[in-house]
Design brief:
The complex is a heterodimer of chains A (325) and B (690). By secondary structure, chain A is mainly α. Chain A is built from 15 helices and no strands. The relative contact order of chain A is 0.13. Chain B has 690 residues and is an alpha+beta fold. In chain B, strands 13, 16, 17, 18, 21, 22, 23 and 24 form an 8-stranded mixed sheet that branches. In chain B, strand 6 (202-206) and strand 7 (209-215) form a beta hairpin. In chain B, helix 12 runs antiparallel to helix 15 (459-468) and helix 20 (574-583) packs antiparallel against helix 21 (590-606). The radius of gyration of chain B is 30 Å and the shape is globular. In chain B, 40% of the residues are buried. The chains are: A mainly alpha (325), B alpha+beta (690). At the A-B interface, helix 2, helix 3, helix 6, helix 8 and helix 13 of A face helix 5, helix 9, helix 17 and helix 23 of B.
Chain lengths: 325, 690
Amino acid sequence: MIAYIIRRTLYAIPILVGINLITFALFFLVNTPDDMARMQLGVKRVTPEAIEKWKAERGYDKPLLWNAQAAGARKLGDTIFFDKSVKLFAFDFGRAEDNRDIANEIRTRMGPSLALAVPVFLVGIAVNITFALGMAFFRATYLDLWGVILCVAMMSISSLFYIIGGQYLISKLWHLVPISGYEGGVEAMKFLVLPVLIGVIGGIGAGSRWYRTLFLEEMGKDYVRTARAKGLAESTVMFRHVLQNALIPILTGVVVVIPLLFMGSLITESFFGIPGLGSYTLDAIQAQDFAVVRAMVFIGSVLYIVGLLLTDISYTLVDPRVRLN
Amino acid sequence: MRPILLLALLAAGCADVWNDPYPASDRGRNILYSAFTERPKHLDPVQSYTEDEARFTQQVYEPPLQYHYLKRPYELAPLTALEVPKAVAVQGGKYTVYTIRIRRGIRYQPHPAFVPENHALAPERIARLDTPYALPLGTRELTADDYIYQIKRLASPRLHSPILGLMSEYLVGLGEFAERLRKFDTRRQDWLDLRKHLLEGVEKVDDYTYRVRLKGRYPQFVYWLAMPFFAPVPWEAERFFHQAGMAEKNFTLDWWPVGTGAYMLTENNPNARMVLERNPNFRGEAYPAEGEPGDAAAGLLADAGKTMPFIDRVVYSREKESIPYWNKFLQGYYDSSAIPSDTFDQAVRVAVGGEVGLTPEMEIKDIKLRTSPDITILYLGVNWLDDVVGGDAARARKLRQAIAIAVDWEEFISIFLNGRGKVAHDPLAPGIFGQRIDEEGINPQTHVWRDGRAVRRPIEDAQRLLAEAGYPNGRDAKTGAPLVLYLDTVGRGPGDKPRFDWWRRQFAKIAVQLEIRDTDWNRFQEKIRKGSQQLYILGWNADYPDPENFMFLLHGPQSRVKSQGENTSNWINAEFDALFERMKNIPNSPERQKIIDRMVALYRRDAPWVGGFHPVSYGLTHAWMMNGKPNNMARNNLKYLRVDVDRRAELRREWNQPVVWPALLILAVLAASSIPAFASYRRRERMAAR
């Protein structure tokens, strides 16, 4: 397995270079270093000299990808792309365009993001599996039919509706929790109840329907028929056999998401004033802060690759037939 | 179920609220709560230039002057200076000298930079710090050297001061000083001690007096002395923050201001919260005893003579979305708020006669409405370099005048701003010297005075002008081709469609086709820079309340295309430019008024801007917040404000009692709906195989 992990890690390097190149190309397709300078320096009394100085200080005065003026390897090395990309692989993210240390920001903001994402993830899985098992248990009944209709309806509603509706009902009308804000420590609980509740409810539609499909597929297999023929109770068949065997496809979707929990939620964090990495990324996009955008895309890619690797490893744990080689 | 119900009922019976976003330890304390939407980029007074930043910097940093809090028109008053300095011409007017005398005994806020031992901290110790205030704190007296140090910082090659270019034109030796520093500063890892470098135009007279020498005359310089660019910065602060490991912790002067003001920034988390606390070393300042007529009746002089500040702590929370911001204001968790466009009707009602008032929902809560015209202009500009609409030819001028009549700004303000604006008849903002009002102030090219108010000229006048311009019925008289004009604007999303439709309708009134080129801010700026726009929308927020700060937007030598200046229309009129040079150098007087009148007349005739408007700010405050008066020039307003903490606590409790029964009902319905499922499950389990 170790050889497999090493091989997959090595495969990740060209993937990360490619992602970095695409991010770079997309960003500079719509922004020039001049645009970035103007965005940071403001709109009033910005002189061409100030723009040149800003670019020179941050290394944006070089060619983007190819330096025709340079000699030898420096044609590639003395460029914005090379300068900004190499350090990423050492996880040196440098400074944001407003001069704040990106690594420090990420460390600070990771906590609030996880405080929101982990409960949503865990409670969400539990609720979705419960709903899905219920619908599968009562398959082909009115409960199943209305359950599916409810799921489709909930899937069709925008997450913004859940957020605004939840804030309106629970915070504004009923005054049960604060509308927005965040505090560290135990105080965080009162701010997280509502976004977690909304996150879980917002995910029920899609999650439950998917799990229901997995469970129904398992329930049609021979081993389930055999289990029933042996006289096992339906609940035993469902919880001991179907649930366990449905874990492999569930893991496919679930484990890959775990590392990405660090990245936070763009919309939820913004609406609830949670100072996590999601709102950090959104701020950076709006401020055309390439340093932060690049760092967040890179971290996201690394985490996604880690997630895929963990998924593969988890297969071997839940299914002894699977071997990584 | 029973324990949950009991718990809920118990909680509901408590007098306390559940939705208070602030820690319990804050209750009953003399704290003001506010919010910010955009995170500040710079808090260093040499770089900071936006309102989002000024709300923090101007509480901490104290330039020599400030604007009088209550008087209108805006009036300069001493802050740390003993008086507003007078300009003294020397060498036959070749130079102007300002001598600034500061008060004795002003002390800096407590800060670790004033403890010499803190200038040599081990990086490991810095790495363990959560805030610079965890270190031993010290202070010292403010001296003239600190003001001189800051003026030198304008030229620092390590900083980006937006006014370096402008000040280099006036302040003797500043440009050369910047160049010398640039050549000297080759080792960025070392601290750049500006005390060792001499700036010719700034001279220390004694510990409490310094002198600034300008080239020629620049009467507007005193206004700059009321801005943080000229606030004092102690060298110790730069030295302290320059230590290795500080920047990695985001401990920089750009994020942790050090000043003598009424407040000090003690918590700096621009992602969530910024906290200002009363500076214990603040000397105290008396609340003004004079204001404009009506201030006494409004209760704004009730605290006259009392020592400021009144509030101990100010908590700014980050609110990126307007809905939570607004709802928290209504719940009493913010003491003041702007009115978001989508909730305007909920807050304000406009009577048939145009009188503005609050809705019953706001009046029940005893919320107060304050309106104030912004010192701002938003305008529809014309590119003077454009072949169709630009230039001095009569044909183009008449076309511009026709457009100026056709674009109904009154309607725009009514539809898109809920009436929160005032049509601009000239380039000057309301309250600025030189602006005429009422009948004298209307633009005769676009309006007539009728029944005591300005009425837009009929569209037939615009059609006639268009025909005279060679476009009868919107078609070129020679070729018969329809006239198509292009408007460059910065789009904000799908919500812009009604606005764009409105613009097209304005031009359609004179049978002109309008193509809207919706673009992003960067592309828009690029077009303006290159002069490739035809019509465009832009605005200007004044730096100081002087006509020069608006008229320079139309000054020929400051053309954007030719000199990268602020004249984005690239309008050049020799007479206007000559008048501008005269006007900017003389004090407010009948002579200056006469010059401005002529400049306005030229502007109206040539129409480089085909109309515009001045926004009016509407702000709401709760009844427990006292002494609030909008001041568009000064942001150091926190020291004047007072909060009735007991009243706020009482009303918060009244407005935010938890309503538990709907949540219990939902739980009960969910529980009840699971009963048939459970029964069915039990039945299935007991059922024999079929």
